[in-house]
């Protein structure tokens, strides 16, 4: 960085101070996080919802049958047909993806359900032309915070990830969607409404029993784990045996909505204020894929407009001025630029933003991407560490992780792993003894929203068969349509 002018060097230093999260801060965040997880399970509740899912235990590997899994994440819609065969831990899957039209995300409730049901219909028509499909159980992955009194029920608490569809918050989404399915006469019974994290936990545990946490690092962020009923005072009134396992969808994107411990910058505050739900998802807004490009954009614009340095002087900022015009893949490309002269970054800025950046400016841009990406990975690790601490999870503890940021963002995994080492102070010897696997190891998950959804539908049907009907609203319908 020898040839960088003083003013830009000063700004790089300023950004480093702003975005670097030292080990001591990670530890402080994690400790606060552990308390907040417990608070979410208490009767009074806290800002982390800690939603009870009514998924009561891990799969055995013996689950069988044919299922439809529907995945409504943030970016795409996916319909899958999944067969769980006799062989333990195996599955077969066929699937189709559909684009989630941008206008739907801020449209009306009915349009959403009609569109999704149309996609399911297209899928069934295409794969079952002969019309010979009997009633199939469906696991619906609806990856937004829902209050679930039953596994086949879920009242949307609030939209996240930039969605803002009127008429859904505060409603049970199951009958809303079922009505659209019914209208089309589709042979499907919505057996389980699940979150992507719970699906990930269950699917990953199906193939690797050391999996204790399912996590998503994608457009949004969140994790699920298996709790015991005795640690959930908010369902104590149900008088279930305290050792009963129950999966909790933490919804920890809402961690620190009160802004007590997270190192918020002025850019994070702008993102929050300008979002459809200010005051919500504080943690998610600092670390998830939807926001990384926006943080980056806001910083560059601020540096250009401020007096502390000269950057992109005399160039048009029209493109950079458009909110949410950059996504996390823009930062990924910058971080992946292999060339010393950052020529790929130069071309990217030129093509997408119409900016002709000089070498020192490119250096700042690259460092900024690294800082934002590293902060996201390090803060992400705090959520995982908090669950591990709360549950005193011991090695080998695998975390099944999915999502675009985890799968595609360069160095995210290594940075997250380093953050866990910083939080837990694992001695090098512990890691060497374990053949280089960390005591808590975050690794690529099985397909949670597909296989996980099918497994949870199967587990629900199994409970109906056994007469264990806790947390199942329409056991009668399941009996009639899926067990006859
Ligand atoms: C949602 C969660 C989801 C996460 C990852 C968040 O915005 O509230 O339900 O698990 O994104 O998709």
Automatic annotation (TrEMBL):
Keywords: ATP-binding, Glycolysis, Kinase, Nucleotide-binding, Transferase. GO terms for biological process: glucose metabolic process; glycolytic process; intracellular glucose homeostasis; mannose metabolic process. Pathway: Carbohydrate metabolism; hexose metabolism; Carbohydrate degradation; glycolysis; D-glyceraldehyde 3-phosphate and glycerone phosphate from D-glucose: step 1/4. It catalyses: D-fructose + ATP = D-fructose 6-phosphate + ADP + H(+); a D-hexose + ATP = a D-hexose 6-phosphate + ADP + H(+). Its EC number is 2.7.1.-. The keyword Nucleotide-binding applies. Belongs to the hexokinase family. This is Phosphotransferase. The lineage of its organism: Eukaryota, Fungi, Dikarya, Ascomycota, Pezizomycotina.
């Amino acid at each position: 960085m020898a040839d960088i002018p003083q003013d830009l060097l000063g700004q790089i230093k300023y950004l480093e101070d702003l975005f670097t999260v030292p080990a001591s801060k990670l530890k402080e965040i994690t400790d606060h996080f552990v308390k907040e997880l417990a608070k979410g399970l208490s009767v009074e509740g806290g800002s982390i919802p800690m939603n009870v899912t009514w998924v009561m235990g891990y799969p055995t590997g013996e689950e069988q049958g044919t299922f439809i899994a529907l995945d409504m994440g943030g970016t795409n819609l996916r319909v899958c047909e999944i067969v769980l065969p006799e062989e333990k831990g195996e599955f077969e899957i066929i699937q189709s993806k559909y684009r989630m039209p941008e206008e739907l995300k801020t449209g009306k409730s009915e349009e959403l359900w009609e569109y999704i049901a149309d996609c399911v219909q297209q899928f069934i028509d295409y794969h079952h032309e002969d019309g010979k499909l009997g009633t199939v159980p469906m696991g619906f992955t609806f990856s937004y915070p829902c209050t679930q009194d039953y596994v086949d029920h879920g009242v949307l608490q609030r939209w996240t990830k930039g969605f803002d569809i009127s008429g859904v918050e505060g409603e049970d989404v199951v009958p809303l969607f079922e009505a659209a399915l019914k209208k089309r006469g589709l042979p499907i019974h919505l057996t389980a409404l699940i979150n992507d994290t719970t699906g990930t936990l269950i699917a990953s545990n199906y193939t690797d029993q050391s999996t204790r946490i399912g996590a998503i690092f994608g457009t949004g962020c969140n994790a699920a784990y298996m709790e015991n009923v005795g640690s959930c005072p908010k369902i104590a009134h149900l008088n279930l045996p305290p050792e009963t396992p129950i999966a909790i969808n933490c919804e920890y994107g809402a961690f620190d909505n009160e802004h007590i411990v997270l190192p918020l910058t002025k850019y994070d505050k702008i993102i929050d204020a300008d979002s459809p739900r200010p005051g919500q998802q504080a943690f998610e807004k600092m670390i998830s894929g939807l926001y990384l490009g926006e943080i980056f954009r806001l910083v560059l614009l601020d540096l250009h407009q401020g007096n502390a340095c000269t950057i992109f002087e005399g160039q048009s900022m029209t493109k950079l001025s458009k909110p949410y015009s950059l996504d996390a893949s823009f930062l990924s490309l910058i971080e992946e630029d292999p060339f010393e002269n950052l020529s790929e970054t130069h071309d990217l800025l030129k093509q997408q933003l119409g900016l002709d950046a000089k070498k020192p400016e490119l250096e700042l841009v690259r460092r900024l991407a690294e800082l934002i990406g590293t902060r996201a990975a390090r803060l992400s690790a705090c959520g995982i560490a908090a669950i591990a601490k709360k549950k005193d999870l011991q090695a080998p503890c695998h975390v099944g992780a999915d999502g675009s940021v985890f799968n595609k963002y360069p160095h995210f995994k290594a940075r997250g792993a380093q953050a866990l080492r910083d939080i837990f102070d694992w001695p090098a010897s512990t890691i060497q003894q374990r053949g280089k696997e960390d005591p808590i190891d975050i690794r690529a998950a099985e397909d949670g929203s597909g296989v996980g959804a099918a497994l949870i539908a199967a587990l629900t049907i199994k409970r109906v068969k056994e007469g264990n009907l806790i947390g199942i609203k329409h056991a009668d319908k399941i009996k009639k349509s899926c067990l006859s």
